Amino acid sequence: MVTKLPKYKLYHVFKSELIKRIVPDEHIEECLTRHRTGDYAILSEEDWQCNEDAIKDKKGYILSCYEYITPEGEYDELYNETDLDSKYTSVTQVDE
Questions:
Q1: Contacts of 54 by beta carbon, 8 Å cutoff, 6+ apart
Q2: Confidence (pTM)
Q3: pLDDT digits (tens, 9 = 90+) for 16-40
Q4: Please, what is the Cα angle at 41 between 77 and 11, to 5 degrees?
């Protein structure tokens, strides 16, 4: 098994109330690990490059998007967004 190293540090992580209520903590942590190691999941190639540029420049935003299954059995998307300037990461749904 290959362990990827983090590309940047997560400081303050904010999880929306909805995400905390419906997404298991283990899945949130897995998504944050993937986010931090450069696996941005279901984003366009252009968005991936914007993330890599932000990491290289040590400023701006890093966005990632992961699927999860709601309690009703539906697929939905969880978004991680890290602001490298303020050192905050938010975990939300797209419409929050």
A1: 60, 61, 62, 84
A2: 0.87
A3: 999 999 999 999 999 999 999 999 9
A4: 85
